[in-house]
Design a protein that fits this description.
Layout (H helix, E strand, L loop, with lengths): L9 H15 L5 E7 L5 E6 L6 H21 L7 E6 L2 E8 L5 E7 L5 H15 L3
Antiparallel strand pairs: 1-2, 1-5, 3-4, 4-5
Helix pairs in contact: 1-3
């Protein structure tokens, strides 16, 4: 832990890793799944066939969700829960997880991923984190 990194309770880390392994792990097309704190620190991660720098992705997750919420407020659509964008090589999903220890779930998907299946799995991760 560094001076600026928050103390993440061990049970949150354990529950996060178990939820990612259980619900995201079996889903085809997920290159990275990452749970991070709203201020950009990794809680748990799952990586398949990816060299992405998770610390960078984690740092961006909170900023992107904050930006999405700001846009939502400007257009009177408050309470942004998810930000999804498509690229030529896949889809990226950022989803807020409201729990005792709030976090953001980020998933980087390749073109083989079925978005509906991924979103279902993301909801299950959120439900598991609400039990912590």
């Amino acid at each position: 832990m560094t001076a600026s990194q928050p103390l993440i309770p061990a049970q949150v880390v354990k529950a996060g890793q178990q939820a990612l392994d259980r619900y995201i792990g079996p889903v085809d097309g997920v290159r990275v799944a990452l749970l991070s704190t709203p201020d950009g620190f990794e809680i748990a991660s799952l990586r398949t066939n990816s060299e992405l720098q998770l610390n960078r992705l984690s740092a961006m997750a909170g900023s992107l969700m904050a930006m999405a919420r700001a846009v939502g407020r400007e257009i009177n659509h408050t309470g942004c829960k998810r930000l999804t964008f498509e690229t030529e090589t896949g889809v990226v999903v950022f989803q807020s997880v409201t729990s005792e220890f709030p976090c953001i779930l980020c998933m980087v998907l390749d073109t083989n991923a079925i978005l509906g299946r991924v979103l279902w799995a993301a909801a299950e991760v959120g439900a598991e984190m609400n039990k912590v």
